[in-house]
Q: What sequence folds into this?
């Protein structure tokens, strides 16, 4: 395919399909979402029914989210699971892990096996100001390791709670955990590469916030391969159309786009969830 032609004019390309129909002809897996209102921003759609309708519109098969209130400790994960039960076609949840509530962690994980719509754990260490390598996460990470669960971390370049060195150490300490590096160690792109190539094969870069930057998806694909990159939006903070458009507009191949938007997740987690 020639790049002198506009992407959406290349017959049969993912871009042409998307520009023409406003959706892809394959399922999309969004592995980084949230839910609930937030005092710092107005969200047009942040509750389950409106989010689910939006996901249907664009062809997202699964959004895995953590509820803002569960991350902050003002709502329990059991209540989040009840929301998903009532709206379970596309929504799946991460159990929010807040290291300041150790008793919540133990109580909630004791229920995990009874929650069919909970598929992994979410850690937000920069906000909780507890480094990902801290002992307060040990119980949750051992639990994830025993079950070979995915753990989505908020990561950010240069942040001592969840930067490259901390994430690499964590992934080497827990080789049976599947780590999704939310925001791809944003801004510290050499560490993004190192956190994949020096880890024991258990890590993936998750793209939330990256598609807004020019040329970074291309760099990450070059550095670690599209097989190690997954898609996420932070919905409702960012919109599915914006972020999917950013991935599809990147100067990478259609196979790379498909790896990022769905193939990698189906390979790692299967399709039966
Ligand atoms: Zn997030």
A:
């Amino acid at each position: 395919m020639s790049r002198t032609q506009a992407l959406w004019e290349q017959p049969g390309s993912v871009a042409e399909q998307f520009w023409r129909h406003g959706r892809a002809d394959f399922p999309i897996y969004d592995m980084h979402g949230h839910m609930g209102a937030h005092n710092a921003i107005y969200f047009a759609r942040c509750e389950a029914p409106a989010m689910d309708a939006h996901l249907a519109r664009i062809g997202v098969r699964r959004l895995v989210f953590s509820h803002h209130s569960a991350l902050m400790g003002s709502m329990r994960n059991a209540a989040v699971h009840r929301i998903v039960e009532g709206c379970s076609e596309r929504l799946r949840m991460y159990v929010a892990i807040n290291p300041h509530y150790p008793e919540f962690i133990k109580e909630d994980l004791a229920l995990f096996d009874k929650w069919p719509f909970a598929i992994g754990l979410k850690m937000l260490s920069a906000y909780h100001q507890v480094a990902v390598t801290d002992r307060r996460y040990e119980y949750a990470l051992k639990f994830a390791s025993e079950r070979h669960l995915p753990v989505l971390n908020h990561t950010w370049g240069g942040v001592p709670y969840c930067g490259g060195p901390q994430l690499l150490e964590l992934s080497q300490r827990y080789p049976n955990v599947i780590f999704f590096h939310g925001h791809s160690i944003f801004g510290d792109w050499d560490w993004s590469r190192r956190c994949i190539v020096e880890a024991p094969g258990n890590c993936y870069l998750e793209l939330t916030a990256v598609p807004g930057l020019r040329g970074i998806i291309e760099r990450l694909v070059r550095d670690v391969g599209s097989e190690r990159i997954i898609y996420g939006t932070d919905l409702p903070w960012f919109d599915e159309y914006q972020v999917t458009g950013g991935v599809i507009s990147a100067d990478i191949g259609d196979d790379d786009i498909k790896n990022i938007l769905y193939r990698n997740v189906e390979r790692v987690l299967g399709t039966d969830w």
In short: The chain has a mean pLDDT of 96. The pocket of zinc ion is lined by residues 32, 34, 154, 182, 234 (CB under 6 Å).
